[in-house]
């Protein structure tokens, strides 16, 4: 049994260890899941706490496994990344989220930025810009309502290449956010070189803001940094009122987290759009 793994072929033998076997299993199951339409996109609102309006919706993929039920990305995204299956899965997520957003805009809901995660493999894909252009055309979605999230690690892999790609995306009117900001290896220098719109403060820092003076200091500093660089700042993983109040006190007005809503299926998200402003 030969199975494609990226650009190399891997031969399955009984001596293969359990972990590799499990991987191969997951890979095959993911292929089938793509064919059988087993993926689903859930959306989590980003809320502007001054207006109470939903300003963004982050698309988060789930796998509706026929036996296991709902499987979360933590259990399959890494294997999808390593096998290259993240490319077709990611395209499907982007198309689905754009179609959904377009449908809601056409139905008269106030427009909301669609936020889509891009993995390293996706970002480094040669025809990324063409793929995104095609999906925007096919779905009729206005690029100014699309925000792509990439991590510092992805950005720093090949800085010259990153500058080129981000400039092309920015020219199209697409927004760029740095996900998990503060957790990766990067230099502040790139904030100057790259056309970035948003910094997203990682959940690990938000978790500690009320109990840990170092987390509080880091979060406060990121908020000021973003303001001084004229970037939008979004706090992710806001779970409690104390965290919410801390962030509000630091003049961070865009938030995402369970305190507002968990990621929910499209029908439920439409319910959230209907009962705005959020409170
Ligand atoms: P992420 O991009 O950092 O997304 C935020 C994760 O935190 C999501 O987990 C979300 O459900 C969770 N979250 C949001 N608010 C809270 C909160 O208040 N408390 C806690 N404890 N968690 C919160 P999820 O959906 O399991 O996704 C995990 C990761 O998988 C994402 O992290 C992202 O890196 C990746 N991922 C998800 N969907 C996609 C996708 O379509 N493409 C790619 N490339 N990666 C994806
Ligand atoms: Ca994200
Ligand atoms: Ca992430
Ligand atoms: Ca995160």
TrEMBL record:
Q: Where is the EAL domain?
A: 23-277
Output the superkingdom of the source species.
Bacteria
What name does the UniProt record give this protein?
Diguanylate cyclase/phosphodiesterase with PAS/PAC sensor(S)
Organism of origin: Thermincola potens (strain JR)
What taxonomic ancestry is recorded?
Bacteria, Bacillati, Bacillota, Clostridia, Eubacteriales
